[in-house]
Design a protein that fits this description.
Shape: globular
Number of strands: 0
Number of domains: 1
Helix content: 55-70%
Order of helices and strands: HHHHH
Largest sheet: none
Length: 74
């Protein structure tokens, strides 16, 4: 269970970092992805386990690859 939470936190941090590096507000990205802002906020905080489909929508709207979201070495 600990590994799952660590993965969720890492993915959330990565999404937030990519979003901020592109200068996109959380509200704007949520709207582009057809998500509630609260859901995106929870995802970025590591409080949810996003589906691959959700991550793909986020990646597309950030104009990055899905691999960029799950590559934590960057």
């Amino acid at each position: 269970m600990k590994e799952k939470k660590q993965l969720q936190l890492a993915i959330g941090k990565r999404v937030k970092s990519l979003r901020e590096s592109k200068g996109i507000a959380q509200q704007d990205l949520a709207a582009q992805c057809n998500l509630e802002k609260s859901n995106l906020s929870r995802l970025e905080a590591g409080g949810t386990n996003p589906t691959i489909y959700t991550l793909k929508r986020i990646a597309d709207n950030l104009d990055v690859s899905l691999c960029d979201i799950v590559n934590f070495d960057k």
